[in-house]
Write a structure and sequence with these properties.
This protein is mainly α and 131 residues long. It is built from 6 helices and no strands.
């Protein structure tokens, strides 16, 4: 995208304030008729624009969650525990999980497999740490 055009679109985009974060390229083209849908689409897909929008949305989400937590901390309602649990799960889902994931299960050997010379049936969990 042309540098001058991008700067013009940035200025217009930021003038919409927080509302811009929820606007599609169609919404922007409808509000600013000087630029077509494709121009706005190209702008919204620019790497730095995507990064900026993502950061803004994250900040807004965290701010709203803090307001909710502040509000429920003064509440004695029945739904308070449920809301706290839901918020905790949301935070857990945000955590970046790295590395391999291993899923293992126990499948009992059939009678025929038990007779095989190369079959080993473990009698304890090899991944469980002994206390």
């Amino acid at each position: 995208m042309d540098k001058d055009l991008k700067e013009q679109l940035w200025v217009i985009f930021k003038e919409f304030g927080q509302d811009a974060l929820a606007m599609s390229h169609y919404d922007l083209a409808e509000q600013v008729t000087d630029y077509d849908v494709e121009t706005w689409k190209t702008f919204l897909l620019e790497r730095d624009v995507v990064t900026w929008v993502t950061q803004e949305l994250k900040l807004l989400q965290e701010s709203e969650m803090k307001k909710i937590v502040k509000g429920i901390s003064n509440s004695n309602s029945v739904g308070q525990a449920q809301l706290m649990t839901a918020l905790g799960k949301m935070q857990d889902n945000k955590a970046i999980k790295d590395g391999p994931v291993f899923i293992y299960t126990h499948v009992p050997l059939s009678d025929q497999q038990k007779q095989a010379q190369n079959a080993n049936e473990l009698d304890k969990d090899i991944f469980k740490k002994e206390e």
